[in-house]
Structure formats: C-alpha cells, structure tokens
C-alpha cells in the first residue's frame, strides 16, 4: 500500500486564489455579458435551447416549463426560477427595446406584477432572435461540451443583432457591476455602419448617429452635455425625468398628467405612485388633492389632481424634486472581452461587435465556399458522366466488384472489368473522376438521365459557380467583407427599426424655493409611543393639566429638528416638519413609523429640540458605571441616525440629561444598595465617541440601577420601590469623590428602585 503524502498549503494563499477563482467564475460565467453577443451565459443558453426546440418566430408557442426544463437539463443546471425570470425579462417590452422572447400569457407588467407560473405561460423566439441565432449551422462559432458532456452548446452566438447596445444589460458580480442602458436600434446600426465606413471615427462622430440612450419607457434625459463623457469613458451619470403635461380639468382646475416614467422604475410603476402618495401624506405636495392611475393598453397615464387656483408648474417642480419622477442612472460599460472584465467606451463596444462580425462572416463564407466547391465537384462529375453514360453502364455490367468499378472510374486500374470492345477499354483508361464524383455517379438514380433532370443539374452547376464567385469576392478583402456586413445590417434595420422614444436635452436641476413660515409647536409623545405635533394655539386653549398625560413634551419650532437618545447609545433626529401635524385630540402616529431608524423595542431616554443643544451640556451615565459630560454642539449632526456615545460590551445607558444651572451634584444607587454622591465638577468633559470615566466603584456583577441630579442644598432623597419607599436626609449622604464605593443603605434589593 503506497504511503500517504502530506502536501503543505499556505492557508492565506489558498483562500486568496480560491476567492479569485470564484470571483472570475461569477464574472465570466454568470453576471457580466460578453461584448460579442451582449448576452450572459444563462441568456445565451435559453435562446439556444429554444432554437433547438424549433421555437422560431413563425412557429407555434411552447410551454415555458418545457423550455426551462430543457435549459436546466442540458445547459444551465441552476435554479429553475432564475432561468424562468431571465426568460421573462427578455420578453418584457418595458425592460428591453427589442425583446428576444415572445411571451404568451402573463409575463408581468410595468406596474410590478410578477409573471404567472411557468406551467401557465408559453413562449417562442422573436424575429430579433433569428438574427442572433442565424448561421449557427455554418461553422460560424465554436461549440463546447455542456456541463456533463452529453451535448454540445455554442460558446457564443453569431449575433448580427447588436443586442448589447440595443437592449442594454445589468449585472452584479463580485466587486464589480455593469449597467448598459438600452439604445435605439436604428441609431445603433447607423453608428456601426459609420464605423465600418471609417474605423478612425471618434466618439463625437458616433454620437451624430447615437444621440443617447433610448429607453422603452420613453422619458427625458436632461443632461445632454454629459453624454460625451459617458460614451468616451464608459462611465457616467444620466439624469432622467418622466414626461409630464398639464391638462385642463374644467372649472378652472388643472391636472398634472404623467405619461412616461423613468426607466429606473420600469416594472415598478406602483412603487412610483406610492412615493407620490407618500409625499402628499407628508404634506410635501399641498397643492395636490388626489393621484390616480389611469394607465391602459394605450400607455401610461398617472393623473395628479391640482387644487383650484394652485400653480400646476410648481406641482411638477415638486414631483421632479421630491419623487423619483426625476431619477439618476449611473451607466458602466463593463463587459467580458477576451475572457477578461473590461470597461469599454462606445467605440470600444462597436469595435468588438464589428470584429466579431468579421470573424463570423469569414468563417461562414469559408464554410459555404468549401461546401459549394464540393458541390461543384460533384456536379462537374455528373455532367461529365452524362456524356459517357453508355461507357459507365458498360463498366458496371462488365464488373463483378464495386471496388473494381471505382478504381476504373477514378483512372487507377481497369482490372476486373470485361469490355465489349477495345474502343471502350481505351476510353476507360482515360477516365479520371475524383472519389467524390465517383460516389455521386454510383449513387445517381436512373431518373437523372431524363433530359429535364439533366438540365436541372446544369442549372445547379451554374448557380454554384455564381455562389463560389460571390463567396470568393466577399472573402477577397476586408473591405468586401465589411461591405457585406453593412448590407446585412441595413436589411435588418428595416425589419427592426423603431422611432426614438426618449427625448434628450439640457435642463437645469430643479430648485424649489419655498417660503417656510416658522411657528412655535409642541412635540407630544404619550406612554404608548404615539407621537404628534400640535401648534401653540391648541396648547394655549387646552386645560392646564392636559400636557401631564404625555411622557415627553418638547417645545420647539416648525423649522427645527427633534433629537432623541436611546438606551443602546443611539442618536436619532427628524425634522419637525416631517412629523404629522395633528389636532390635540388626535391620537397621532407610532413613533417608530415616523422615525424608521427606531426599532419597536427602542427605549427612549431623552428627547429635546435642536434649538436647545447649542449652549447645552449633556450628562451620560451607564449601568456599568461610566460617566461623562459632552458639549451640546457635538450632537449638531447632519446624519439622521448614528452613535451618541461609545459603550462597553453589554453596557447600556442609564441616564441622559441636559444639565441645567441647578444641577451641581449627582447621586446614584447600585444593585448592592451602595449609595454614592459626588460633585459634577469631578466628571470629565469628553467627546461624543468617548467611553467616559468611572462614576462608581462596582463589585462583580454589580450595576447602577438608578440616579438623580441634585442641587447641593437638597433636603432629602426619596427612594421608592413597588411596595415601599425610604427617605434619606441630606446629612445622611456624605459628599464623596467619584469612583468610590459609597455608603450602604438598608433596603430590600429591588431592580425597580428609583429616586423620586
């Protein structure tokens, strides 16, 4: 038995190499399209599987489940839902300019509806797919074994149709992503033709034909001047807007009508409408009274009703500014080129496409030339044989073995043949048919000897000679090859042409200058965590004890911010104008619905207004006994949610308080009934992200359970638990230094103990 050999591998090197291998597998084999046919492997396999099922555009539909089954079983052994979703996307005319799959049944909608299950829907290829798959049988591309070696699949499609630019693509790999917007098919083809005419053409020259992206949902691109950089570098930003018009609704009213939505929300129109409704609920669109979706088969139609006398243009400006009716798209022309991920320019994409077409056509016409020459050879032999058919028949009748006949016809030997005359024998010695011609003569049926049949052979021979001349002419030079590619492109353009849907211009960014009136308001939060904003007048009119029922009452203004601190050391803030304004008798809204960064279980310790923090100081005390004072401006932050302080593991905030002039001392009680009182002058003034200094010396598992800020002239403290309370005189609590153990008091241990 051979000895086992121990192979030492460096763990770090192995992990690095394995991760690189995994990354490249995802990039090349899953997420990023190949620059030549513009397809990811999954898309390519779906189209090829449908072609193998003979689902051409002029054939019948087939169940989607059957197509997905063939793709999974033969080419792409991944999830069936992923394959079906990919096929569905290739059929959606609101996602792609020229769909490659024609769906029959529910294949989803622009609203965001999902496609029906694959067992209910049917599909076949479109005419554009014909241009993607055509000539696969003419040795145009290399084939490879599928995952189990049972069948062959193409490494690439011939792809005369410039799918990458026309339909665009999106993909997220490991550490990189691609976003190529769709373009108008006629413009793309004209740009390719221009490149074929002049390979030195620059980006500016190409942009005379390709004006910019052309989305299936239409809309407007409003930063035209930025397009040159996008096409020059392969990276950029598009500002896209909905198409919005103003309609007369009668009685002096106007309606704002959205007829085209941004491509970023294609397949999610309902979410877009929800954003408009959300803006209205937050009172960010006071000029509007209602929004409704009147879309139909004829197209998108979202109507926003405008109040009588309100400015409709202002409504449009707010919709662009505050909703995704104006959105951004950041294209990145990342593709797989020669098995490497690269970001290419527009010219780079077109160059790669043209080089692919040159190779495809060169292979195709070399293949056709070879086939035609072989056919000519056979037809030449049949014509020659027709003139000496009597001799051939004599050879056949005078032979006993087929091998002797073949040798005789090919001029190799006349042995084994009995001729009727010396003349026939002499003529036979001059025969020089090729092996291919010989086989064709011997396979020829007698009906070919009829005059009309022979005329067909002669006609076929003439046609083959013309084909050979054509193929040789196409292959004679690069210019001839380019001319042929151009002719095919222009023919395809007639089949697939479509008018431009997306307008392109330069528009300034929307700036809304709104005169905001500052008024005094109250933020009220009850014990059930319902929050509301109430104006000063409502509070003035209410009875004196009205505010006592609320857990938090913050007096502020409508233009300020509400600041909250929670037990886990988090800082949250929200603009007062973003909190629903209510009447005093209204319940309000749950605080975690208004402030999304708050969890339902968040325990709020302190709440104040941004107006009060500039000149203030905040005291922080944790259960594990860390204490510090932080200047208020430390919390004048732009972020809505961040850390208010740094905590040790498993620690929590016990007390957060805004210090006043009366606060001079602090007293705290531990879970072991130790009481410590010291001056606030002993507490360090630190930064927001500091842990703090030691407040009280604690034993193992001992924590601080309650504390209270004091004026040094206080008379007594009251400690209360659930069932009892204790009063402690000032003189019974000595003033000590921070970080000491404190004095012991006699009281039952109770976690609910608190100072009154």
UniProtKB/TrEMBL annotation:
Residues 32-517 form the Topo IIA-type catalytic domain. It catalyses: ATP-dependent breakage, passage and rejoining of double-stranded DNA. Its EC number is 5.6.2.2. The keyword Isomerase applies. SUPFAM superfamilies: GyrA/ParC C-terminal domain-like, Type II DNA topoisomerase. Keywords: DNA-binding, Isomerase, Topoisomerase. GO terms for molecular function: DNA topoisomerase type II (double strand cut, ATP-hydrolyzing) activity. InterPro entries: GyrA/parC_rep, Gyrase/topoIV_suA_C, Topo_IIA-like_dom_sf, Topo_IIA_A/C_ab, Topo_IIA_A_a_sf, Topo_IIA_dom_A, Type_II_DNA_Topoisomerases. Pfam families: DNA_gyraseA_C, DNA_topoisoIV. The active site is at 120 (o-(5'-phospho-dna)-tyrosine intermediate). CDD domains: TOP4c. The keyword Signal does not apply. Belongs to the type II topoisomerase GyrA/ParC subunit family. This is DNA topoisomerase (ATP-hydrolyzing).
